[in-house]
Amino acid sequence: MTDYGTSNPGFEADVIMTAAVLGLAVSYIKNLVPIRFDMDPRDKDKEWELFKEVVQRLNSAAVGYLGRNNLLPSGTVEAGFAPLHTKGAVVVGVYHLAGQKTPDSVNEPELSPKGKVLYEKIRNEQLPQYVGRGAYTGFVDNWNTVGDTDPVGPLSTVRFLVPQPDVPHETPMPHPRWLPPTSSELWRLRLRRNTQDLYVPWGMIGGDKAQNSPNTWMSNPTNAPNEADQITGLMKTQGMVFEGEPTLSDIAGYTHGMIQAIYKAYGLGPSATPYEITVGTETTKLASCVPCSLFMISLGYPPTSIHLGRGESWVPLLEPYTPGRSSESVERAVIRDLNNSWQDECAEWLTLGLKVLDQAAVTDDHQASVTAVRQYLDTNSRDKSVASALILDAVSIHDSELSRISRTLNPADSVESIAPTHRW
To answer: Which of 3, 77, 134, 200 could bond to 190 as cystine, CB 3.0-4.6 Å?
Structure first.
């Protein structure tokens, strides 16, 4: 993200995430198989036509790029429906490198005896975990017969503070994160209503609703005077753990349960499988967000379904979060290695996606942002963490990937019919 006088951080976020999705899509359909993005089947009547039309824009841009560069695509970008949300259903990170297979049913995963016991406790919400908006609980089944044979969980979404680059930290920081300057218009909506200088820190989910009165259809357990603080208070009472209290010089980030589970599964070895279990009732997309999917695919744990909704202020782990579960030195090495692999893939996908955008039907108001993002990435090309930092910065401007793509890419000249398909 840039802070030049002529830059538009919102447009740049649109371009970054559209490029990341396009880079992933082209890498799939060029060498492997079709890639599919799914929507919640419960939203079919109100969103399917828009969803398939936006996915067709992705397909047109990706296939067009390959054709213009004399590369024959072996697949297309497809639209479909995620599995239907039911209590206890699972999103799976299948470890292809270990020969794992997708389960026959998202509602009846085949688990180890110990894993089955823990799964039932998580599914029935018998253990402390977050159960509010976006609530999916990470869980690792463990089929090991020697050494550590216990499953891991529950692993709920946790809010962390992104380490500041000028503060000593055990884990080396990647490229510095972007924080909007105090003069940015982005802070206007984060000024708490009826105050003169009390702003919601950057990255906090719901922070751009600080000017709103508390939402009447949502509970307000902390009697917050604005909707932003109402959302934060509700998340806390619904079980989300907040590690640290952000100030205006901090950036808040959220590490999802599946991501935590993948670090644990990788440390336990190929006999471990990471899952996310559906809990609560406020989110019904049984699919992984784009930031989670990029991380999962980069590590050989492709998700069973990908949605184009929100991955607000998503972050990976930078240090062990559950010390004592295994050797901290081992966990720290796993985090370092997995994050390095993720950063390398982000650089490949974002670079490729920007090449696609250079030849795609980009909307007029986003052309300058395509140039700005590409120039920034080129200028910092020696630092492999820049692309991943740009993606993290982009998702700190909260919106759905569907909306970002729609704003960035013009409609395809000829929209082919896309027949809806289903997972399971």
So the answer is: 200
